[in-house]
Design goal:
Glycoprotein, Type 4 Pilin, 1 helix, 167 residues, 54% strand, OB fold (Dihydrolipoamide Acetyltransferase, E2P), mainly beta, eight-stranded antiparallel beta barrel, 2 domains
Length: 167
């Protein structure tokens, strides 16, 4: 059976076939999971390596929190069919609220025109970014109330960074 597994935002296709697993179409490797009775601990053997993993269900179907070697991982693991159905359902839902303003490119914040609590109209200038020696005025996608301003004049910004959040 094939599963789509997201681990901390990275996606993998895991195919299980008896005592073997194949990740992203790679070579099959022996894999076994054993429960430790009355505990959230699993003993996971991959190839010759034995790992002690603590597994806790995280509310949603297929969502788990794993602890391995002192590190915490958020894992979503669903079979391909269930994942496809969930993705279709998610795509048909409108966003829960106003979408935050994200930096469309890396650059330098030149000006910030708003503060938390401001009511803005669609198209109103919010933040100016300088990128590749050009100034770009970023505008409000919809009318909303500004709740958080993360953009700071004079600071660098990476593509995809949240600049302004709305209510």
């Amino acid at each position: 059976m094939k599963y789509v597994v997201d681990i901390d935002g990275r996606s993998f296709v895991v195919e299980l076939d008896g005592a073997f697993a194949r990740v992203d179409g790679g070579e099959p490797i022996s894999a076994k999971i054993e429960d430790v009775e009355h505990t959230p601990v699993r003993l996971v053997t991959v190839g010759q390596a034995l790992h002690r993993v603590t597994v806790r269900h995280d509310g949603a179907r297929g969502r788990y929190i794993l602890r391995l070697a002192g590190r915490r991982f958020q894992v979503d693991a669903l079979d391909e069919r269930t994942r496809a159905i969930r993705d279709m359902a998610d795509a048909s839902r409108p966003p829960a609220g106003p979408v935050p303003l994200l930096a469309p490119m890396p650059g330098l914040i030149v000006r910030v025109h708003v503060a938390p609590g401001d009511l803005v109209q669609a198209g109103q200038p919010l933040v100016a970014i300088e990128a590749m020696k050009m100034e770009n005025e970023l505008r409000a996608p919809v009318g909303a109330k500004v709740t958080v301003v993360r953009a700071v004049p004079g600071s660098p910004v990476e593509k995809g960074a949240t600049l302004v959040e709305f209510e």
